[in-house]
Amino acid sequence: MNSSFRIEEASLNQRIKDIADAATRLFLQQGYARTQIGHIAKAVGISVGTIYLDFTGKKEILHFILKCTIDPDFIQREFARPITDDLFVGLEDELIALLDKLGNDFAAHLENDLVDYSFERLISDTFDILSRYAVGCLFIEKNQFDFKNLAENYRTFRRKFFDTMICYMEAYIQQGTVRPLEHVELSTTLIIETLSWWAMDIRYTSFETRNISSDLAKQICMDNILSAYKNN
């Protein structure tokens, strides 16, 4: 492969990334159904025709975004253009399987009586999960009526995630690691919603988004949640 081809390929991959980034924000902020190819083109600063050189349609852009949520290295591949939906056969099953795995992995430490698993580690891991899969989670939440099967599986995941978090909190209270709480369920909701906002919404869907690093957002969450709930 000569150098000029590599430069051209890198430029095309950057354009695909720019399209995906713009579409992500539009899908999350105004909804998938309301977003048109023209909106994406305008946000990127290219023509509608140029987008169709890279993707056969809006659905393919969405599937590309969701695939990159599962596999961040996917965007580094070389793609035949325009990208078609043939590239994403079985994607919904992959997403559902991922939700199931995340739920099971998150609960794993309960089976070991929290051996070597601190409250700090729980909060850190929860933030990391929410941050890592922010785009996929937010997309389903904001477009649940357009993607009902995914939304139903996501609700199941959220219920399991929430119930698992309550079990962790109750175990840490019993240990004396977390201070006694009068309303464990509501306090757990507050913790999850705080982590969710700082891990996901602040970057994409809050009224005034802020481009702060994930590390800083995590530090703010850790400092405040540990200060509020950890037993001194």
List keywords for this structure.
232 residues; mainly alpha; Tetracycline Repressor, domain 2; 2 domains; 10 helices; 0% strand; elongated; disordered N terminus; HTH-type_TetR-like_transc_reg
Secondary structural class: mainly alpha
- Helix segment count? 10
Largest sheet entry: none
Strand fraction equals: under 5%
Uncertain ranges: 1-8
Pfam families: TetR_N
Organism: Candidatus Blautia avicola
Keywords: DNA-binding, Transcription, Transcription regulation
Protein name: TetR/AcrR family transcriptional regulator
Please sum up the structure shown.
By secondary structure, the protein is mostly helical.
Summarize the structure in words:
With 232 residues, the protein is an all-alpha fold. The chain has two domains: 3-88, Tetracycline Repressor, domain 2, CATH 1.10.357.10; 91-229, Tetracycline Repressor, domain 2 (Orthogonal Bundle). Helices cover 69% and strands 0% of the residues. The chain is built from ten helices and no strands. The chain has helices spanning 3-29, 37-44, 48-54, 58-70, 91-107, 119-132, 134-142, 148-175, 184-204, 214-229. α4 (58-70) packs parallel to α5 (91-107). The radius of gyration is 20 Å and the shape is elongated. It starts with a helix and ends with a helix. The model is unreliable at 1-8 (pLDDT under 50). It holds the Pfam family TetR_N. Residues 36-55 bind DNA. This is TetR/AcrR family transcriptional regulator. One of its GO terms (molecular function) is transcription cis-regulatory region binding. Residues 13-73 form the HTH tetR-type domain.
